[in-house]
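Worked problem 6 (solution included).
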Amino acid sequence: MVVHIVMFRFKEEDKEANLQKVKIGLDALLEKIDPLLSMEVGINFTDSERAFDLSLYSTFETKEDLKTYALHPAHLELVEIIKSVTTESKVVDYII
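Solution. The predicted structure is:
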């Protein structure tokens, strides 16, 4: 199984609204992209300089399924929205 984790730091402008909008958009991908086995989206509550604002934890059967997800039109459309409201992101992918 492949695990895909992404963390995002959001711009301050309309931050709370954008966090909710992105969370809803990410949650909706589970029904739109077949190779996506599971997805958990969390909004941070920790007040720390090191903290990111939102994290995504998703699973796939194979690396190829992760690639299919990455190139899916619904994902790509959401990526553009995310890029417009965030300042930074970090990713880690691994096999369990």
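Discussion: The domain at 2-95 is CATH 3.30.70.100 (Alpha-Beta Plaits).
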